[in-house]
Amino acid sequence: MSTNADVLIIGGGVIGLTIAYHLARAGARVTVMDRGDFGREASWAGAGIIPPGDPRHSGAPLERLRAHSSAMFPGLSQELRERTGIDNGYLRSGGIEVWDSGHSHSAGEWCPQGAACEEISSAALRALEPGLAQGFRKAYLIPGMAQVRNPRHLKALIAACAGLGVELRPGSPCLGLEVGGNRVRSVLVGQERASAAHFVLAAGAWADSILHPLGWRLGVKPVRGQIALLNTRTPLVRHIILHGSCYLVPRPDGRVLVGSTEEDAGFDKRTTAVAIADLLALAVRLVPGLAMAQVECSWAGLRPGSPDGSPYLGKAPGLENLFVAAGHFRSGIQLSAVTGLLMKELILGEPITIPLDAFRVDRCGEAPAPAAFRT
Ligand SMILES: Cc1cc2nc3c(=O)[nH]c(=O)nc-3n(C[C@H](O)[C@H](O)[C@H](O)COP(=O)(O)OP(=O)(O)OC[C@H]3O[C@@H](n4cnc5c(N)ncnc54)[C@H](O)[C@@H]3O)c2cc1C
User: Fold this and answer.
1) Which helix (H) or strand (E) holds 224?
2) Is the CB–ligand 1 distance for residue 14 below 6 Å?
3) pLDDT for the residue 257
4) What is d(CA 257, CA 253) in angstroms, rounded to the nearest whole number?
5) What angle do CA 248, 254, 257 make, to 5 degrees?
6) Per-residue confidence (pLDDT) for residue 314, from 0 to 100
7) Nearest 5 degrees, angle CA 28-CA 31-CA 34?
8) DSSP state of 254
């Protein structure tokens, strides 16, 4: 297997594909290899919530990243549509967070800096979403919250990459990295080797299995998330509804995603009766009309969880041409746009739009990042 790529990306989820897209758009020759089909793991499984943010006001590193990415999504979605004819379903549907009496957070905790977020009265809530149950202790409206349909977004990214000449290699598992001196020389794919000038590890929850033979780990682990898909044909709610660590994401066609669990189940992607029952019960409690909805299907995906909840974005220590973009945990879809941009800048030696120190690969022992939005 030969490649004369400038950049070889291991992992064709939303992170690997968005990096490939940015690099190819800048004129680089790019190969993306995935052990299976492209975009069929966590990126496909996710709910596609894109929280708002204002790049001018966000302060903490992760909030800055989120705000930039959120601001990039409308443009990226339009660009993909123009290049491929595929509409990724980007929609600024707004979000409403509802609290029961058990919740004890302050509004500021949940609103990313600079993003509009206002407490609304029960009457205003009823007027906005008559299908929602009543009796919540508090409700907050987050008008800038958006959503994308993951499978469509991935389809658009794959088509855009192909259109830009990216070499896409499904069914190509990376079995290891061959290192010489301070450089990666090639990727082992079966009995063959694939070489390139630069390598990017974007293998999601599997990133550590590739790094481990080199003698180090990021601490990225799979965190299972289960989702149920309901269908009422006509939408009963229009906003994304957030409740604790769970949510309802209503699609305009009457489908509603109900998510999600956060489980340490290793690489087991099965759904379980108890988790899906809990999700369905919550959905009906939040929106009683969902009691008669059709249950279309359920699935689970493996989020790439990092020890502090922030992604790793940067050069691998001691290896000049190996870059890592992994560990996006519950935020990989929302952070994918800015991740693609920043990794392109880093790899091509361009000025970096946002400092990446907080996301460096060799960081350790830092406090968990605040989880304002728990997609
Ligand atoms: C239920 C659920 C709901 C979610 N909801 C949201 C949401 O609303 N908003 C949001 O922003 N995020 C959400 N997420 C998180 C988001 O989906 C992930 O953070 C994101 O998809 C990670 O992307 P990735 O490309 O790093 O990983 P993945 O999509 O898992 O891609 C990694 C790829 O690497 C490939 N690979 C692995 N090992 C190898 C190897 N050895 N050789 C070659 N290829 C390999 C895999 O086959 C895979 O295709 C959710 C996740 C889940 C599970």
Assistant:
1) strand 221-231
2) yes
3) 98
4) 12
5) 25
6) 97
7) 150
8) S
**pLDDT score at 106:** 54
Q: What is the pLDDT of residue 308?
A: 94
Rounded Cα–Cα distance for residues 201 and 178 (Å) = 14
Cβ of residue 31 lying under 6 Å from some atom of ligand 1: no
pLDDT at position 109 is 57
Atom of ligand 1 nearest to the CA of 225: 1
What pLDDT sits at residue 121? Answer: 95
pLDDT tens, 305-315?
999 999 999 99
DSSP bridge pairs for 325? 313
- Annotate 4-50 with DSSP letters as a single string: -EEEEEE--SHHHHHHHHHHHHTT--EEEE-SSSTT-SHHHHS--EE
Enter the pTM of the model: 0.96
Closest residue by CA, ligand 1 atom 33:
11
* pLDDT recorded at residue 144: 95
| For ligand 1, mutation pick of 1, 21, 43, 62 (most atoms within 8 Å of CB) | 43
Residues of the chain with pLDDT under 50: 365-374
Pocket test for ligand 1, best of 31, 40, 41 (most atoms within 8 A of CB): 41
275 lines ligand 1 (CB under 6 A): no
Pocket flag, ligand 1, residue 35 (CB < 6 Å) = yes
Contact 22, 282 (CB under 8 A): no
- Ligand 1 pocket residue status of 260, Cβ below 6 Å: yes
For residue 132, report the distance from its CA to the centre of ligand 1, in Å: 31
CA 289 to ligand 1 center in whole angstroms: 32
Closest residue by Cα to residue 96 from 124, 62, 68: 124
